[in-house]
Amino acid sequence: MSYVFTEPLAGRVYLVTGGGSGIGASIASQLAQLGARVAVAGRRQDRLDQTVAHIAELGGQADAYPLDVRDPDQVTGTVAGIAEQSGRIDGLVNNAAGNFVCPAEDLSANGWRSVIDIVLNGTWNCTSAVGRHMINARRPGVILNVIATYAWTGHPGTVHSATAKAGVLTMTRTLAVEWARHGIRLNCIAPGPTSTAGAGAALWGTDEERERVLASVPMRRFADPDEIAGLAAFLMSDQASYVTGEVLTADGGQALGKQIYGPAVVPAPAENAP
Ligand code: HXC
């Protein structure tokens, strides 16, 4: 038996936040290559334009939407704009994120708020706006949230991001059950260390940190963003039509390796420890 299955997402309209660079740009490109029209949203117009131009070169369709996911009014306006311009919204990928490494005791109120606002509130702003649109339009839909395995383990140095990602995981599971009756599926992907400029600068800025991260990955390499995008495309497609409330991890075995071998480094007690 042979299949002709060239553009399984033809006719669909998907919104990808943080789509101007990194994993988001790869996801947007891969969805477009599968036939979807992609609304690429993010804070920087120049990056959005680059992604849209790249997708056009691949023969796909995409539109740029400047957006700060932290602003609920902007999000509502953008969702209405996409629905007007493209006629429908079938899916959302909440990929926009912010992160930096900082000991919890040094994290300022604004630093905490900034990451929680982008990751947790931003995901909620987009999910609630797109979910309402889907429910009102009486159409099925799919939502994918990009988290990290530290949503369930926690991770020293990134208490803001880990806390926000844990909230996103719980949001996903809650709405997967609550919105199943509206035909909306919600899932997460948990990428491990991925070779992007944003994550590199935020999380492994020096050679030493880079080596330490690599040493924690049994496959001994970073993920290519396209490997993560493939997983996203699967969950956004009808191939995953019975999958909801789940997390698919693609981390080269990192989380499992840490369980087996223990963490690479356990810090010594603080000098002034009681
Ligand atoms: C301590 C820091 C800091 C740092 C920022 N802050 N960087 N504190 N160490 N390295 C503090 C600032 O001092 C400020 O607090 C507050 O955070 C807000 O900073 P702003 O720069 O004003 O905020 P903003 O312009 O909104 O930028 C948000 C951001 C930024 C998160 C800080 O890094 C950003 O926009 N990042 C987006 C891209 C990104 O981070 N990508 C990586 C995602 S990787 P004060 O008190 O001084 O006002 C990822 C992967 C996870 O999430 C999984 C890995 C396995």
TrEMBL record:
Q: Residue limits of the Ketoreductase domain?
A: 12-171
Q: What class of enzyme is it?
A: oxidoreductase
- Signal peptide positions are none
**Molecular functions per Gene Ontology:** 2,4-dienoyl-CoA reductase (NADPH) activity
Pfam families xrefs? adh_short_C2 (PF13561)
Q: What is this protein called?
A: 2,4-dienoyl-CoA reductase
The source organism is Actinomadura physcomitrii
GO BP terms in the entry: fatty acid catabolic process
Cite the entry's keywords alphabetically. Answer: NADP, Oxidoreductase
Domain of life according to the entry: Bacteria
